[in-house]
Amino acid sequence: MFNILKSIKNIFIHIRSSLKFIFLLIIATALIIGILSIAYRPLYSVTIDGVFVGYTANRSTLQQTINAYKVQGDGANISFIDIQATPEYSLRLVRRDTETNDEEILASVKQSGVTYYRYYAIVLDNEVTQYVQCRETAQAIVNELTERRSENVSRIAYMQINRAELQEFAEADAVVASLFVAPRPAPVARGGAGVSTNPGRVSYNPSIEIAFIRPTSGIISSPFGPRRGGFHAGIDYAPPHGTPIHAAASGTVTRAGASGSGFGNFVIINHGNGVETLYAHAHLVLVSVGQTVAQGEQIATVGSTGNSTGPHLHFEIRLNGVSLNPAHYI
């Protein structure tokens, strides 16, 4: 019994000694950490391609800034930045007076990148003629040439460019002036019937052999010909708002969308051999540029956009930019 009590006493003595040691160890560790925290602090060491470029206190924030720069850049017309360098981070305990240099690190990353710019080229016969800054400007140029019935408008387009070289941009008015070709004047009547002497507007031309169909339903609210001291270059149909508009003949869509002017939302279809049809004042445009459509295929819905006093379709047939009377072909 005495031996058992002695053994228990020895165990308690051992435990007490161990607790003293652990307590002293905790105090010593705390003192060491305290001393180190006074003289040192944790920072991320940053290297690029194995070369040390600096320290950052917040790895996540710096990387987010780099990622944002890749997408947005820091200038106009940036499409994207192709960053060649990939920063690598390593946590280090450094002297407290060590300074961070996030801006210098970001500058090193930028130096390794290639900037690609986004802008638009105006194309004539697949050849670039001018560059403009944005899509809106390019579309406005095409719309202006369309409304002025430039003879070459069916051969003019625009396309997005993504290049490392930023080109000099032209003003919209200057581009229109350089590309505009006045439409051919109508032939002078020589005793025949149905030919107007108004330049750019002809009632009938026998060279067109396309069998057009009526593009929509509704009454004819305004025919081809003189109107209110001017000249109406097409036929207006007046069905209810939202009525389908169909392609009068098969062809390729060369213009589609908002005209930014009197036509409102419109579509132009190229039928070949200089023949085009125009569908204006639409509510919804359902086709896109470059799309091939079949005769009778729905391309839009009737609306009242642009210079319009109510829902209707303004429909034109053109030959080399000269407006013809649709009534002779439908």
Task: Write the SSE topology.
Blueprint: H1 2-39, E1 40-48, E2 51-56, H2 59-72, E3 78-82, E4 87-95, H3 102-111, E5 114-124, E6 127-132, H4 135-147, E7 156-163, H5 172-179, E8 201-202, E9 219-222, E10 225-227, E11 230-232, E12 235-238, E13 244-246, E14 251-258, E15 265-272, E16 275-285, E17 292-293, E18 298-302, E19 313-319, E20 322-324
Helix pairs in contact: 2-3, 4-5
Overview of this structure, please?
Helices cover 25% and strands 35% of the residues. It is α+β, with helices and mostly antiparallel strands and 330 residues long. The strands form 4 sheets. Strands 8, 9, 12, 13, 14, 15, 16, 17, 18, 19 and 20 form an 11-stranded mixed β-sheet that branches. Strands 3, 5, 6 and 7 form a 4-stranded antiparallel β-sheet that branches. Strands 2-1-4 form a 3-stranded antiparallel β-sheet. α2 (59-72) packs parallel to α3 (102-111). The protein is elongated, with a radius of gyration of 38 Å. 28% of the residues are buried.
Brief summary of the model shown:
It is built from five helices and 20 strands.
Write the H/E string, N to C. HEEHEEHEEHEHEEEEEEEEEEEEE
Give the second-level CATH assignment, the architecture of the largest domain.
Answer: Distorted Sandwich
The number of helices is 5
Let me know the largest β-sheet: 11 strands, mixed
Low-confidence stretches are: 186-201
Q: Quick one: how many beta strands?
A: 20
CATH topology of the largest domain: Glucose Permease (Domain IIA)
Percentage of β-strand residues: 35-45%
Q: Helix fraction?
A: 25-40%
Global mean pLDDT: 81
